[in-house]
């Protein structure tokens, strides 16, 4: 298997799916922080379509689009560095700059007008991301994994017809 770092357009598509979805779309993930379980939700200040009610009466930790995109991108980079252990200082510096420079840019999904098209594209984009980001031993324990599997499972639930999954978004570009 080869691994590569997805471009920011691809990351932005995944974040946009989370940001622009209806109320049936992922609201957040369960995760651990310093040994304690917590719920991480999409910050309603940045994701206005999100339900702002806390889960189970608890105040959730909130994440914005830049932080979520960086979280995904960082895992993708970790995966590539894990796969190809011979990265030199220049390559690591380029990856560090990519992370430092990342700023979320919403993808215009209005052109995806066919019913379920955004869900189909999100599934394939998330599957491709998972394939590229899954080279670390701790992949299933990462928040990137939880967000990615949430995208896939939510979008799949919204699609009634398995034939609708035929789409080309393995490596999304604007």
By DSSP (H or I, 4+ residues per run), the number of helices equals 5
Uncertain runs are 49-58
Counting copies of identical and different chains, the oligomeric state is: single chain
Helix-strand pattern, N to C?
A: HEEEHHHH
Mean pLDDT across all amino acids = 77
Form type: globular
Please give a structural write-up.
The model is unreliable at 49-58 (pLDDT under 50). 45% of the residues lie in helices and 9% in strands. It has a domain at 8-24 and 67-165. The chain has helices at 8-20, 65-83, 89-101, 117-133, 143-158, and strands spanning 28-33, 36-42, 61-63. The chain has 174 residues and is mainly alpha-helical. A hairpin with a 2-residue loop joins β1 and β2. The chain is built from five helices and three strands; from the N terminus they run αβββαααα. Strands 1-2-3 form a three-stranded mixed β-sheet.
Write a concise keyword list for the protein shown above:
45% helix, globular, single chain, 9% strand, mainly alpha, three-stranded mixed sheet, 174 residues
